[in-house]
Give the backbone structure.
Amino acid sequence: MMRYCSTRAGAPGRSFRDALFSGYAPDGGMFMPENIPKLSAETLSTWRSLSYQQLLCEICCLYIPEQEIPRAHLQELIARALSSFSVPDAVRLVHLKDSLSILELFHGETLAFKDLAMTCTAQFLQYFLRRDGKRATILVGTSGDTGGSAIRSVLGLSEVDIVVVFPRGRVTRVQERQMTTSAADNVHVFAADGTSDDIDVALRKLFADPELVRRHGLMSLNSVNWSRILVQTAHFLFAFLRLGGGEGDPRAELEVLVPTGGAGNITAGCIMKMMGVPLRLVAMVNANDILHRAVQSADFSMTDAVKQTLAPAIDIQDPYNMERVFWLLSGRDGVMVKDGVMVKRLMEEFQETHRLTLPAALHQQLCEVLSSGSVSDDGILETMRRCWQDNHYLICPHTAVGVWRHYHCPVTPGEHRCCIATASPAKFQEAVHRAGLTLDLPEAVLALDALESRYEVLERSDDWESRLRRHIESIGSARERRDQGK
């Protein structure tokens, strides 16, 4: 049966439920499957005709044991999660000029790729909470899209309260309104006077308190949560089966351009690559280029400050999911045994000093799995304009970070290239206008302006950890009073 462990070696043999209901592991690491299943060429050939929803179910069945969620129930949960998407199969593949395809992942309620994994994760969560008669408090830090998506996925659920913290002034108006206009009693939103990396520091401390986690069922819906990564692996499999090796050469690689911030999507791609799917992964970042520097020169170090760019959801200097990638690449005595002790040492050094030079062997392995690129705001605008001129196809600034690579490194004739489209351009109107382009806003976006905002502010002078701790405690007290009144 599939079991889970921490990337830092301190929590072996955990269930999928354990990983789902956790933020960080108790030792500060992140949960990962103890082994990575392999997909044969025959299996890939058989799966080629499956829909995205069917592929997602097949992948989830490999990582969620039948004893925890029976296959029939898993199919129902995934179908329910994807039922609200605006296109028939939840995702859509668009073919553009010069062998470029765009995998649109933004057809959920908040118009961002996070909706795919978030809605599925929320269904898994509700399944266990209702089965066990339990409740949970979700704590989420966000650089933009995660917060709104997490709120929508658990809106009104009686078993769940959600606390979302976003960086004030560093998200778009649409992103902010999607987080702050919910009137549901189980939604609690904070605007922090800092960066998303600053927020993560406070949240890590709260998740490191085992008593707080136990008493309040504290968990995360960031891509810290393994379930988010699991669902995102299906994006890469779907793209490969539609665009990759043809009948004559089923192992031919597909290059996938991945706009990258917290590195959840790129981690999912690495897992799918290790499962045997022939992918060439390109992690594309904006001016916050720590991951690009890690690939180019082994320099995994933060700079003095997070840079604000036209692609705010990836304005991140601590791509925390890279810990998972480092663990995947740190095999000892075969690929199934990972060196959590080494990862623990490296990541604790990084957390303490914000600087790290990757060991030579790890850097070499990273370069074999990933290539990378970094794009300026001017490059983002140039790419948005060119994509429109060439295809009459409008992309968001994050997707432009990926597509930039296509215009500067053309594909070899006969090859295909896919870019992950992470969000609708409707969420980034300022960038669209700066590119000299126009767009018609969806009704769901227009309706946000008529709603009342509701949130609290975390000033820079506040002790964020203490303030959030008190709020979580108050949520728990209110829940107990409600239960006693029934």
Summary: The chain has a mean pLDDT of 92. The chain has 20 helices and 13 strands. The longest strand covers residues 160-167.
